[in-house]
């Protein structure tokens, strides 16, 4: 059973337009993600998942437990463990033991990780800006508002 609220049926033309919109959003997102993935690989020999973990860690002042990191990325601990291990090997992140829990550790960026991420984040922002350069600031604001409304309606908020 659907979790979406029941609404009066729209005409078939509107439903088809919304379906085409969804497919267009999906294709556009995938195309942009593929482009960014390739740019990140070529420029930094880095995968997008590694970049995403660095971004989440950068926003955390004290670091995160693996479970918190996984939940913020909405992936399993197993998916994050290998990526974090590679970041630790590369000197971009470190594991710090949790004093009250011998099994747990906090993952945080190293100074090197902070510096490398700062450079990558700036370049990444320029790449995204270039990919979306055909959209004005006002158009971006309007699209953000509409997409936020759609997302919240889907979440039940």
From TrEMBL:
Lineage top rank: taxon: Bacteria
One annotated GO molecular function: DNA-binding transcription factor activity
InterPro entries: HTH_MarR-typ, MarR/SlyA-like, WH-like_DNA-bd_sf, WH_DNA-bd_sf
GO biological process: response to stress
Family matches, as Pfam families: MarR_2
Residue stretches making up the HTH marR-type domain: 18-152
Record protein name field: MarR family transcriptional regulator
């Amino acid at each position: 059973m659907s979790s979406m609220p029941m609404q009066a049926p729209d005409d078939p033309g509107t439903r088809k337009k919304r379906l085409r919109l969804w497919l267009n959003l999906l294709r556009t997102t995938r195309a942009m993600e593929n482009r960014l993935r390739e740019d990140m690989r070529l420029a930094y020999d880095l995968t997008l998942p590694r970049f995403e973990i660095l971004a989440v860690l950068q926003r955390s002042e004290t670091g995160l437990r693996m479970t918190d990191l996984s939940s913020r990325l909405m992936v399993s601990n197993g998916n994050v463990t290998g990526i974090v291990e590679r970041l630790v090997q590369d000197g971009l992140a470190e594991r710090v033991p949790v004093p009250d829990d011998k099994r747990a550790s906090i993952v945080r960026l190293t100074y090197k990780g902070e510096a490398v991420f700062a450079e990558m984040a700036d370049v990444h922002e320029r790449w995204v800006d270039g990919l979306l350069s055909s959209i004005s600031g006002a158009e971006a604001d309007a699209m953000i508002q509409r997409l936020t409304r759609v997302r919240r309606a889907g979440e039940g908020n």
